Amino acid sequence: MNDPAMLLPFAAARRRMVDEQLAGRGRDITNESVLAVMGRVPRHEFVPADQRSLAYEDSPLPIGYHQTISQPYIVAFMTEKLEPRPADRVLEIGTGSGYQAAVLAGLVAEVYTIEIIEPLARRAGSDLQRLGCTNIHVRTGDGGRGWPAAAPFDAIIVTCAPERVPPPLLDQLRDAGRLIVPVGTGGFQELVLFRKQGGQLEQRAVLPVRFVPMTGEAGRKLSSDLPPDFPV
Ligand SMILES: C[S@@+](CC[C@H](N)C(=O)[O-])C[C@H]1O[C@@H](n2cnc3c(N)ncnc32)[C@H](O)[C@@H]1O
Q1: What global pTM score does this model have?
Q2: CB 153 within 8 A of CB 90
């Protein structure tokens, strides 16, 4: 896969993905830094060998263990909504292949990412290391608890869908921080963007989506513990 002659078609396909499916799709993705990093990160390195020819199509792909790497458009959309800044420290819940973490790592200072399926976390960790991403910290665990030792975060991205937002994630968001999370069950989920401002949370739904569910003890316990009027 590192034969330069083999890499050229991937580079061309990635360029086309950015020009036609991201920048070219309405006016949703306009952040030039996000578009640039999507044009650099080799998505084909994060998918199984038999899926590589599809790596730059705008669709999710299987990565094993009944999980998927998200569609490039959704990765770019969520990244842009987080308003990433160079000094930011970002938490991701749902490492999966490691692709979203690699995109963020090209935009911010540090990325902390948690995956509940141990072999996926291990594989993503070694792929990210092989690709030279030195500002990403990967660990296996239940992301519903967040990463208290590294909190607070400037931004949090959740790439699996809880029924309700686990309160530790809201607690671990810094003031002026942004959190994006798909909320809901089964066929109906909304991507919700939170912003913490002076200790208050503002929230708005930004896109209907379909993600794999958030699993794990913390997510389940915390959502059933919430009072019925807890937002989303
Ligand atoms: C759509 S995939 C994520 C795609 C990933 N961001 C990427 O770039 O490949 C969702 C991931 O969330 C993980 N997940 C589900 N519940 C979780 C939890 N409670 N804590 C951490 N990860 C979780 C799944 O195992 C799966 O790998």
Answers
A1: 0.92
A2: yes
